[in-house]
Design a protein that fits this description.
single chain; alpha/beta; Rossmann fold; 6-stranded parallel sheet; 14 strands; 44% helix; binds nicotinamide-adenine-dinucleotide; NAD binding; EC 1.1.1.22; UDPglc_DH_bac
Length: 445
């Protein structure tokens, strides 16, 4: 099928590439000319495992094209996806500027019957607004073109996005139009072969489904962080508690890891946006507000542990901290709302210096922080530790899991590790004379 995708970010680029890889003819359109130029020259602007070779292969096979020319892209697609960003507005609601801009652009050029599919995460009722924005342009042009706006929320995880796209747990299609269902079933048939994954529902339910999924996952994380806070105060070990509850299939093992708070481009903004939708509709979503509040507090917990160890924030002045992990989670270079950003700011505000290393997010860190005298971006984990007083682990990259504790003990000025992801066993660090602070477990200095 001929497919057009607006937005070549994590969602648009991965979706477009996977659709091309199963044989569809895909045109991706973005307003960022440098991104489009780069992609046309084989430069993939994000790190996503397995993505770059797939982009290259499908681009070379001429099934995947990149352009800034919206008019030709709109002429191309029988199905047009909207996969642009929906960041948080100041009041926590989803900012629909980009989505509605794309809708207006589609209306400006649409010339034949088309299914417009919204893949961006958007509040309930957005499909109606997209429909109105397209229709307004058609009226202005004095033309009558049939089109449907369907919702098809995306559930891929950064870090495993290609796999999620190729083998989705479910494909949610929200529409009242049989034609749209038929077109999207054709499109997704290659991903729906061995068992039924497509769930068809009305548009509003589909829009809400995406928020419900992310809010549920964020709730599990905040719940576990709350248990960790209690564990620290009563002398329990949250890792033992995790094992004790995860074995219950009604609870399960996923998303019950305590840590330095969730970040990324989805959970924080989606929890806020859903709470905002509730508020706008006369309901106070107290659970969601608490999920967000617990997470906000948790993002400062590592810093609180550091201050507790050194006695006061003033005592951090002139100290140097090695920070392992800047991305909001492993296997991505994405630092949007990452816990590392809060921590670094708090360290800098206290007059401390940071020596940071992340396997994939160094370029992004350079872009975000620029040149500053209190930040050294290091080429590897050991260089970050050299000359540092203590080590702080913020992202649970595999490569940080089994460091040489003896070497750390000899290298770190204050021989102390602050572990925001509970990667290590307190006993192992004690054996090597390292002070150890983690989340929801007894600490020792
Ligand atoms: P992103 O910021 O990585 O990419 C958005 C892209 O859209 C950018 O390249 C931008 O230049 C482009 N764009 C903006 N306005 C445009 C326009 N008018 N025309 C063409 N291109 C335009 O965003 P993302 O992470 O891919 O997220 C996109 C949507 O998908 C968001 O609503 C997000 O909540 C949702 N989502 C994201 C993920 C994820 O893991 N990142 C997962 C599921 C859903």
């Amino acid at each position: 099928m001929k497919v057009t995708i607006f937005g070549t970010g994590y969602v648009g680029l991965v979706t477009g590439t996977c659709l091309a890889d199963v044989g569809h003819d895909v045109v991706c359109v973005d307003i960022d000319p440098s991104k489009v130029d780069g992609l046309n020259n084989g430069i993939v602007p994000i790190f996503e495992p397995g993505l770059a070779p797939l982009v290259k292969a499908n681009h070379e096979a001429k099934r995947l094209a990149f352009t800034t020319d919206a008019a030709s892209a709109i002429a191309h697609g029988e199905v047009i996806f909207i996969a642009v960003g929906t960041p948080s507005d100041e009041d926590g609601s989803a900012d629909l500027t980009h989505v509605l801009k794309v809708a207006a652009t589609i209306g400006t050029h649409l010339a034949r019957p088309t299914v417009i599919v919204n893949k961006s995460t958007v509040p309930v009722g957005t499909a109606d607004r997209v429909h109105a924005a397209v229709a307004e342009q058609l009226v202005q042009r004095g033309v009558d073109v049939e089109f449907v706006v369907a919702s098809n929320p995306e559930f891929l995880k950064e870090g495993d996005a290609v796999n999620d796209c190729m083998r989705p747990d479910r494909i949610v299609i929200g529409t009242g139009s049989d034609y749209a269902v038929q077109q999207l079933r054709r499109l997704y048939a290659p991903f729906n072969r061995n068992h039924e994954r497509i769930v068809v529902m009305d548009v509003r339910s589909a829009e809400l489904t995406k928020y419900a999924a992310n809010a549920m996952l964020a709730t599990k994380i905040s719940f576990m962080n709350e248990i960790a806070q209690i564990a620290e105060r009563v002398g329990a070990d949250v890792e033992m508690v995790r094992q004790g509850i995860g074995s219950d299939p009604r609870i399960g093992w996923h998303f019950i890891y305590p840590g330095a708070g969730y970040g990324g481009s989805c959970f924080p903004k989606d929890v806020r946006a859903l709470a905002n939708t509730a508020k706008q509709n006369g309901y106070r979503a107290e659970l969601l507000e608490s999920v967000e509040a617990v997470n906000e507090r948790q993002k400062s917990h590592l810093f609180d542990l550091i201050v507790r160890h050194y006695g006061s924030a003033d005592a951090l002045r002139g100290k140097a901290f090695a920070v392992w992990g800047l991305a909001f989670k492993p296997n991505t270079d994405d630092m949007r709302e990452a816990s590392s950003r809060r921590l670094l700011q708090q360290l800098w505000d206290a007059g401390a210096k940071v020596r940071a290393y992340d396997p994939e997010a160094m370029e992004e860190a350079r872009r975000i922080f620029g040149d500053r005298s209190d930040l050294m971006l290091c080429g590897d984990a050991l260089t970050a530790v050299r000359g540092a007083d203590a080590l702080i682990v913020v992202t649970e990259w595999k490569t940080f899991r089994s460091p040489d504790f003896q070497k750390l003990s000899l290298t770190l000025g204050d021989a102390t590790v602050f572990d925001g992801r509970n990667l290590y066993s307190p006993k192992d660090l004690a054996v090597h004379g390292l002070g150890y602070y983690s989340i929801g477990r007894l600490s020792h200095s």
